[in-house]
Amino acid sequence: MTIDLATYALxxxxxxxxxxxxxxxxxxxxxxxxxxxxxxxxxxxxVAQMGEMGLFGIPFPEEHGGQGGDYFALCLAIExxxxxxxSIAITLEAGVSLGAMPVFRFGTPEQQAELLPPLLEGTALxxxxxTEPGAGSDAGATRTTARLDGDEWVINGAKQFITNSGxxxxxFVTVTAVTGEQDGxxxxxxxxxxxxxxxxxxDPGYDKVGWHASDTHPLTFSDARVPAANLLGxxxxxxxxxxxILDEGRIAIAALATGAAEGCLEAAVDYAKQRTVFGEPLSTxxxxxxxxxxxxxxxxxxxxxxxxxxxxxxxGKPFKTEAAIAKLTASDAAMDNAxxxxxxxxxxxxxxxxxxxxxxxxxxxxxxxEGTSEVQLLVVARALGVA
Length: 387
Prior knowledge:
Elements: H1 12-39, H2 44-52, H3 71-82, H4 86-106, H5 109-121, E1 125-129, E2 145-149, E3 152-163, E4 170-182, E5 185-194, E6 200-202, E7 216-227, E8 231-232, H6 238-274, E9 276-277, E10 280-281, H7 286-314, H8 320-345, H9 355-363, H10 373-383
Parallel strand pairs: 1-4
Antiparallel strand pairs: 2-3, 3-7, 4-5, 5-8, 6-7, 9-10
Helix pairs in contact: 1-3, 3-4, 3-6, 4-5, 4-6, 6-7, 6-8, 6-9, 7-8, 8-9, 8-10
Protein name: Acyl-CoA dehydrogenase
Keywords: FAD, Flavoprotein, Oxidoreductase
GO molecular function, one term: acyl-CoA dehydrogenase activity
């Protein structure tokens, strides 16, 4: 069972991109997903092939080594991958939104010239260190510090849940740190810290509920020194700049969640048609039919939501509220569809060899990462003027 993307008014180029990556996901990604999940290993050969396809460079100008596409095209790619493997999809999403995009948005020409080409080729990855043990949704509670000592920043603190921070091709992480005070408030800046910097430790990876093949680590900084020129963007604008990056990232996460929701629907429809219960296919039961219909409605609504937000973003129009709505709608759809697909699969749905079991474990983080559902509700409430 496959949803006809042509019904979503995609251009010919967009439709070709989506179909190409869906084919790649089915042929290359899906066959290794179970083993990668079981061994908790990011398949670097798959990442390399994604780089060769130009996926990491989709939304960047050609003069930087990108593909000259837009954010909508990136999200089409993320959605297509997430149908079969959320870990691979989040590797692409974080590699672009959190790794390369801050350098592209706020980096100096020198930083862009040095750092962007390998990131856009997919031969290098980077992480973004925002979250801390005591600063998640309240990122303004950042405690990591960076002080200038001559022509160097000296960084101390810790970050957690940092994606793509410890892969074999990770080159640096960008971290938010308190660099002083402004009007009695913390001055938060962002600083590029290359891997291998003395005093910078990538701690062992997490034992996670899901996204097992995604690379995620806590980070520790103990008098880690980097050149003053490693400041990314204007001093004191680090937190504000990252909020802009986060708004874009919510659209991408919504696309990822939509792909996950569709993957669950496809698997459930196929299983219901094949599974015989009391001499009849499971799909002949009206309760199952209604469940599948609701799952399809969720996928449709989620896709329309992220399409709208991405189109606004690419048109240069305000999209903050629409991104929050898309992320909220799609993450709910992914979690709900994963739960109902697992129920349709019965006992088999509890076995990790089946993709619905992995989607069930993976999808919960979609309601938490890059802004919890509660944060999205707050964004929407503020837009309504009631918060």
